[in-house]
Amino acid sequence: GLSGSSHNKGVLIISGYIKELFGKHIPLNFNASLVFEQGYGMIDGDSASVSEIAALISCLSEIPINQQYAVTGSVNQKGDIQPIGGVNEKIEGFFDICRIKGLTGKQAVIIPFQNKQDLMLKDEVIDAVKQNKFNIYEVYNIEQALELLMGVKVSKRDAKGKFEKDTLFYIVEQKLIEMQKKAKQSNTNPK
Fold first, then answer.
1. Kind of pairing, strands 81-82 and 74-75?
2. Which of 25, 90, 94, 178 stands the most exposed, by the fewest C-beta atoms within 10 Å?
3. Which of 41-45, 176-180, 181-185 is least confident?
4. How far is CA 89 from CA 82, 93, 111, 189, in A?
5. Is 47 noted as a catalytic residue in this protein?
6. DSSP string of the chain?
7. DSSP code per residue over 108-143
8. Are residues 17 and 57 in contact, defined by beta-carbon separation less than 8 angstroms?
9. CA–CA dist 86, 109 (Å, integer)
10. 24 classed as catalytic
């Protein structure tokens, strides 16, 4: 009850994306909940859509997300990244935290490619990027973001409708199939 209409729309888009990606090939029989810890006020906007999909895919695949990356971006049902507001403030906010903790050269912010033209960053951030102490990656689709965040190749379905073995979506699909089998077993063998 703490989310607004834009955030709720983003959640519906995520649901549509997951159904499009996996639901055409296997029945989806799970529920997922994402919680914004320490969030006591109203949450609105869909700038967290990319991170929410990443959290869901990470949970399903059991592959962790690189915690040195921050990500912002909206996504449509086809997985295309869409621009967001406040990109400069989001980058600079994460940069400031990294600077305080110590720049390692491995920290990065992932942003929608469309927001590149909006960048007006303070000199400190620009200098850190030039010196390879901080990174900004622009992405066109959720697959690119997931590969950066999780370090695992993402594949599209081939002509036979299969994902390449040992890729991120292959791993997720195998987990979903396993969940489906367990659900069938518990329904046929009630205790």
1. antiparallel
2. 178
3. 41-45
4. 17, 6, 12, 54
5. yes
6. --B-HHHHHHHHHHHHHHIIIIITTS----------TT--S-B--STTHHHHHHHHHHHHHT----TTEEE--EE-TT-BEE--S-HHHHHHHHHHHHHHH---S--EEEEEGGGGGG----HHHHHHHHTTSSEEEEESBHHHHHHHHH-S------TTS-PPTTSHHHHHHHHHHHHHHHHHHHHHS--
7. EEEEEGGGGGG----HHHHHHHHTTSSEEEEESBHH
8. no
9. 13
10. no
- Bridge partner list, 137: 110
Tokens of 139: 């992405």
- Tens of pLDDT, residue by residue over 44-63, are 445 788 988 999 999 999 99
Q: Are 74 and 10 in contact (CB under 8 A)?
A: yes
Chain centroid to CA 42 = 21
Between CA 126 and CA 143 the distance in angstroms is 27
Catalytic residue selected from 51, 61, 74, 90: 90
Give Rg (Cα) of the chain: 18
The tokens for 47 are 């700038």
| Tokens matching residue 140 | 């066109």
> Would the pTM of this model clear 0.85, i.e. be above it?
no
Mean model confidence pLDDT for the chain = 85
Q: In percent, how much of the chain has pLDDT > 70?
A: 82
